[in-house]
Design brief:
249 residues, alpha/beta, Rossmann fold, binds iron/sulfur cluster
Amino acid sequence: MAKWGKLSFAQKKCVSTVGMLMQKTEMIKDGDRIGIAVSGGVDSFVMIRTMLIRQAIIPFNIELMVLHVNPGFKPENHKPLSDWCRENGVASHIELTDYGPRAHGPENKKKSACFYCSRLRRKRLFELCDQYNLTHLALGHTADDLVTTFHMNMIQSGRIQGLSANEPFFQGKLNVIRPTLMLEKKYIKAAARQWGLPIWDNKCPSNDNTKRSEINDWLEQEWRKMPGSRNNTFNALRRWQLDLNMKTT
Ligand code: SF4
């Protein structure tokens, strides 16, 4: 038996769906050094677990490193992550910041707290990729994020835009990848529970209180009115995004 043991249906779904996306978009190649951005939530934890299995399966060498930028609401929050990385032999850079409180303070007069905080965190992650000479930054967005983002862009900005699975930054020096973009959250949650991953709650006052959660609740409400509409929306947007990424890679 493989060293990760027997996988459940949800765990296999995570590993195979990530593998399919990687292959179809030619996301990674031999020698790549991938930083995995981990927030401590269920999505990013399943992403590390799945990427470690993919690393063992693929016929070439890649290196993985966990990057965690704690937004600063609960400084001890990341202890389970540092313990998990140590126990599983995964290289990591874990850093405590004050980005969350600053995003909710007087320094941020114009933007939403999440916009400000995410921008600071993204900037820091880019700096860390440069510092560690990483070729890729992996973000744990899911198919649910793709669907919500697509609707947010359309409703709020009049734009048709989803989330790219593979996007070059800094003249191609760094690729931002989203390996779990085709995976639905229900499989991620089940896989995380079965793997016993040490997930922690986000103690930020803006958590679950954003425009994103509002649009998500509205979509769920609409889907309940028409059987099959949720699946059809997910399938259509996944196919559309995959097609875009396959054409541009
Ligand atoms: S929920 Fe809080 S920690 Fe998360 S991005 Fe928004 S402001 Fe930052």
